[in-house]
Write a structure and sequence with these properties.
Elements (H helix, E strand, L loop, with lengths): L2 H23 L2 H17 L9 H20 L20 H10 L3 H12 L4 H8 L3 H19 L7
Helix pairs in contact: 1-2, 1-3, 2-3, 4-7, 5-7, 6-7
Length: about 160
């Protein structure tokens, strides 16, 4: 990979990689560090990474670095640490509701929801990134969406 192709990858995917890591880790400073490390590793492996697969390679690397960070810090959010239900508020903050519901998910389910619903990857692509088969991806996604739906409850109450 040439310097120009590397720079194109940074320009094209930097914000998406950082958002992905931020949603996984729920810490924007650490997400920026993960993004930087992802691009450092891309540069170090530039001779072996095919530019046609660079997007997938970047998300896979960011995912693995994020999971390593979570495993090292052992920082897991428990259901009972979520603040009072948002229905008690006069005007609920929808972004907070989505963030809180994502925070309840195990890392694998959260990653799959982010890759599928936020980034638009196919089941096959997600499976390749996370070393899962398509069926496993579908099961994790189904369970994650069900947990989100159960947490949010009846959306008619929000509007």
């Amino acid at each position: 990979m040439s310097l120009q192709l590397y720079n194109n990858a940074v320009k094209d995917y930097n914000n998406r990689i950082c958002r992905f890591a931020d949603k996984l880790l729920m810490d924007s400073n650490v997400a920026k560090d993960i993004t930087q490390e992802t691009y450092t590793r891309l540069w170090e492996n530039r001779t072996s990474v095919d530019f046609l697969n660079v997007k997938s390679w970047l998300f896979t690397t960011a995912y693995r670095l994020s999971m390593d960070h979570l495993n090292r810090s052992k920082r897991y959010l428990k259901e009972d640490s979520i603040p009072e239900r948002w229905l008690e508020q006069d005007q609920p903050d929808l972004q907070k509701i989505v963030s809180d519901s994502l925070a309840l998910l195990p890392e694998m389910q959260r990653s799959i929801v982010l890759l599928k619903d936020y980034e638009g990857y196919s089941y096959e692509e997600i499976g390749q990134m996370l070393d899962l088969n398509e069926s496993q991806v579908k099961v994790y996604l189904f369970r994650a969406r069900k947990k989100i739906k159960d947490y949010i409850g009846d959306l008619k109450l929000v509007f």
